[in-house]
């Protein structure tokens, strides 16, 4: 008789787990609380689905799951999907996308594979209870009760709750004795004092962004920074957001607006601009480098006026301006909510699971995906973890 497996959650890791278990002959039932599976997959990569990255170095992953290093080692997202008839392309930065350019193709490949391998998919089944039943596991979802030899929990974290990942299983798991590291929004905008960014709303600038705690630089990222009504955004900011969620208003974001210039080169450049544009209003001094509103903001922060001739900018203002060009600070006031976050930092602690992602507290339960305390940088790393961890959990649940 084939082994029976219940998978809770029809997202990226849940689908991968269901397929892996079914491939080894298990009778798999997948329970999804939304009307259809994979809603969050359709939103990834702005609808293009950045499904993986060629670089699976563990420096791109964060959390309390040392088991992840072995699980991710050698995992090839492109080859994984080719098995299901989906071809991919890789951009210059190592990010992997479906060749079709649409996330719907990724979800279709997974849905087709699950159906072909006999996975029974039941939607609009929100799990409300989990309990042992002899040497099996019993799962309650509304009026329905399901029983299986093994249980895989792939219900996701708390990010993007409109996609069904609302953290609803975490309180239940906490009561069962699992250590839950506080879930926090990650890969999301970082909030700051509105008056520091309001005048820059809608603008973008390339910069080197650093998370600064006291006199320590915790992490530095390069890329395009976007300014909103009350926050900093952009991929480089997203990669600092888990630190902002962790440290709150003790942290600052520092922007180096001219990272390719040394201090001496920046000073020489400023003098050159003052010579070339000395008869123009000071507010126009930096328009050859940045959008005008950014140049005006820098000048005001340095204590200058935008309306005087540029040649009349004082030596003290010039000195402060030079400093701001390499170290423009924004106080952190937290992060955007889970509704704006791409992933969750935190979740089931690594100490609760084995190297195969089976529970150390309850035999016959496996975890995968965002429910575990592991989150990755922007660039396909989180989906790589979903596929790899789902495959690990599914195959081991089917064999155990």
Lay out the secondary structure.
Elements: E1 4-8, H1 12-23, E2 27-32, H2 39-43, E3 52-53, E4 61-63, H3 67-72, H4 77-82, E5 88-90, E6 95-98, H5 103-116, E7 120-123, E8 127-133, E9 136-141, E10 144-148, E11 150-153, H6 170-175, E12 180-186, E13 190-191, H7 194-197, E14 204-213, E15 216-227, E16 231-233, H8 235-247, E17 251-256, H9 263-276, H10 292-301, H11 315-326, E18 328-331, E19 343-348, E20 365-367, E21 374-376, H12 381-399
Parallel strand pairs: 1-2, 1-11, 2-7, 11-20
Antiparallel strand pairs: 3-6, 4-21, 5-6, 8-9, 9-10, 12-19, 13-16, 14-15, 14-17, 15-16, 17-18
Helix pairs in contact: 1-5, 1-12, 9-11
Would you mind describing this structure in some detail?
The chain has two domains: 4-184 and 344-399, FAD/NAD(P)-binding domain, CATH 3.50.50.60; 189-336, no CATH class. By secondary structure, it is of the alpha+beta class. The mean pLDDT is 96. It has helices spanning 12-23, 39-43, 67-72, 77-82, 103-116, 170-175, 194-197, 235-247, 263-276, 292-301, 315-326, 381-399; strands at residues 4-8, 27-32, 52-53, 61-63, 88-90, 95-98, 120-123, 127-133, 136-141, 144-148, 150-153, 180-186, 190-191, 204-213, 216-227, 231-233, 251-256, 328-331, 343-348, 365-367, 374-376. The longest helix has 19 residues, at 381-399. Helix 1 packs parallel to helix 5, helix 1 (12-23) runs parallel beside helix 12 and helix 9 (263-276) crosses helix 11. A hairpin with a 2-residue loop joins strand 9 (136-141) and strand 10.
